[in-house]
Amino acid sequence: LKKPNKRFSFFSFQNEINEVPFFDIQLPYELALKIFQYLGKTELGRCAQVSRTWKVLAEDEVLWYRLCQQEGYLLDTSISDHSCWKLALKDCRARERTLKTNWKNRIGAVSQLRYELGKILCDVHSCDGVVIAGYTSGAVRLWDTRTWDYTAPILEPMHGPGDAGPQPHVSFVRINSSLAVAAYEDGTVSVWSLMFGREPIHRYQHNQRIQALALGSEGATVVTASGFEVKVESPNDRGFWQTTETFEIQKLVNFLNLVPDVTGSPVTVAAAEDIVYLLKAEDPGKILHSVYGQPVTCLDVSTHEAAFGVKTFGWLLNEPNQILLYNLETSQCLKKMGNSTGDFTCVNLQNSPPNMVVTGNKDRRVRVFDLRKSESLCSLYAHQLGVSAVQMDDWKIVSGGEEGLVCVWDQRMGTKLWEMHARHPVRHVWFNSHSLITANIPDEKTPRGASITDDDLTVHCKHRGIIYAYEFSVDQLAVESVLPICRSSYDEVTGYNYNIGLAVPYDNI
Q1: Which residue in 345, 340, 343 sits closest to 358, CA to CA?
Q2: Are 93 and 86 in contact (CB under 8 A)?
Q3: How far does CA 18 lie from the centroid of its chain?
Q4: pTM score
Q5: Which of 216, 298, 474, 508 meets the CB 3.0–4.6 Å disulfide criterion with 221?
Q6: In what order do the strands lie in the sheet with 255-258?
Q7: Exposed e or buried b for every residue in 294-309, given b needs 16+ CB within 10 A?
Q8: pLDDT tens readout for residues 447-501
Q9: What angle do CA 291, 268, 302 make, to 5 degrees?
Q10: With the C-alpha atoms ordered 509, 484, 172, 188, is the resulting torsion angle positive or negative?
């Protein structure tokens, strides 16, 4: 006799199940499946050991697809994309554990994003692994670290009729999923679409130098502040860019943020010395916070709240510097946090876990606050010259300092995992589950001793600034990754800065 196929008999048995025994009653399969949807992984594993019928029910693809979605894995997939969602969830969790181990032990690849022809680095921003950088030569360049694409395109400026001379320095750069924006020293703003090549799709001009630039995390809204004017630019229904709003304020803007996930007309939060404005079309001059003589030192916004640091009178009135949290809908102050003699230099609210905010201070400490209790969860002595950039997730903190040090911390243990140092202050920090972008940007844009000739680039090496890209999803030690100087894209006409990659190119060791 031929031995029956166990796999075939199991699936035949699964297809024949119409009712499931629940103690002393029989339930329809769909109703039993509805009950099992309230169970977690451990409970489903235990139920699978009860009987053959319960095993079929506990391993139903609908249950494991739902668990996979609940834990944040494979969100852009449908239930038909995998044949076994239990195995898919197991693989995702194993990959997450590997990434966490790589983060803690600094296992991965690191690369330097350099553009020597750009001269000195002026500003850096990133979004989902795509990095934009502006330079003193007026050049704006992109890198896509998701594909390790270091043959970065240079975004061409839109030349006017009188632009025959050298290009002005880049003041600010911003990027989101669809747009790249650069503001120049002469008040010019250029907007590029990441889908339509290197030529800008829009350009507009301010009469004075631009003090702040903001780009929405999604959509196509650009806000710039110059002098006492804040201008909002966005495309209309036909795709033509126009000035949608212009706000006149009383003081010069220091910080500018667009409120994310706003339906209708955009909402902007602007900090101008000791006044914080909530700028929207229906209420153009609304003041969110104002205390004379107490300037705002940092600012960040989320969908419903704004957090900013306030420099108080200090020891004169025995009043420490604080972080204030405001509700953007009611314009009420929700919390006052912190008790520091130093100025708060950076705050990250939008990228922090729910009900938490991370801050950096001139007193060299990184602090994490619980917004429900207004108290500090941890205080980390991080840097020698003050903290300049911070970001956190549910278990780690990455901070950058004025001395050029980047530190990675275990937030729950309060311990430093590792650190990296480079010349110049850290002005940009961004990370996700598998990658980290840091930028060391010089404060001095025209260093003493730099050559006045454009073709002598080696003089500027230590003055240029640097961008680091870390990738932790590969099993390769960061110190053993391929040196950037040995990479070549074959599209460089001449070799400069001793780029031996043009002579000895390779992709991997």
Answers
A1: 345
A2: no
A3: 50
A4: 0.82
A5: 216
A6: 255-258, 268-272, 275-280, 283-290
A7: bbbbbbbbbeebbbbb
A8: 765 554 544 544 457 788 999 999 998 655 544 455 544 554 444 444 444 444 4
A9: 90
A10: negative
